[in-house]
Amino acid sequence: MKISVQYLVLLVLIIFVSCGPSDEDKARVKIDLAKNLLVKNDTAEAIRQLDSIPKLYPEAMYSANAAKNLLQEVRFEVMQRNEAELDSVEVQVAELEKSFVKEKTEFDRYSQYTHKRQTFTRAWDRSYIQVHLDERGELYLSSNYHGENWLNHTGLRVYDSGDDAKTDTIPIGSVDNHRSDFMEAKWEKVSYRNGKDNGVIEFIANNVDRNLKAVFLGNEYYYIILETYDKEAVRDALALSKAIKKRNKLQQEIKALGQKINIQQ
Q: What are the coiled-coil residue ranges (predicted)?
């Protein structure tokens, strides 16, 4: 009986494929990989590997169930760690908040944190740098000028002994470049939102102990020496901003993990 070459090739291929690793075998390899990743504390990649098993190997029912159970355990452990970390961050936020007044007016979308040394009654009649923080942890800086003549300033540079940081330019007429006058007094307020402080916040926060100076940049230059309490206000606001954002991130992660665990139970 003659057998064609094509038939023999097809038969060999069928035998080869049938003798290859099954979905169960491949899935078990993935589970072992995930376990090794957990030993190395690469939890995120381990979760990704376990989560992919049911999709990649739909025939691996036993291994898929084992992966699901292990995934449950891993997510629960991660959630517990996040909850413990959240408790610590909550304490940090509460401690940092003591330096601020938190309020929300009819004009505010979010509650605002004002440092106790930079409230309106303490600062309305001086030229200084102010830090602004809201309940989301969003942070920005403003330069506030008070004097007899207009500066028409559009930027700010903070410096000391050859080190400096300079904001972006905020053009006159833009919503973040505001000015007003009353009798002979002039006020100018330039706000550096959405990262336009260009590193000035970090520079001040990291150099509170230095004799920092600032120059308001405009048609005329106006120089001030930063008060210690203004530098501390920037430092405290930056620390609180980071803590609030970390708290919010942990809360979101805990909620997401809880939902995934409940869905799979």
A: 79-106
- Would the pTM of this model clear 0.85, i.e. be above it? no
Which of 177, 214, 186 has its CA nearest to residue 125?
A: 186
Q: Where are the beta strands (DSSP E) in 40-171?
A: 100-103, 112-115, 128-134, 139-147, 155-160, 163-166
pLDDT score, position 15: 47
Q: Round to whole Å and give the CA distance between 237 and 114.
A: 9
d(CA 29, CA 24): 9
With a CB cutoff of 8 Å and minimum separation 6, the contacts of 79 are 254, 257, 258, 261
CA pair distance 27, 114, nearest whole angstrom? 55
Mean pLDDT of the chain: 89
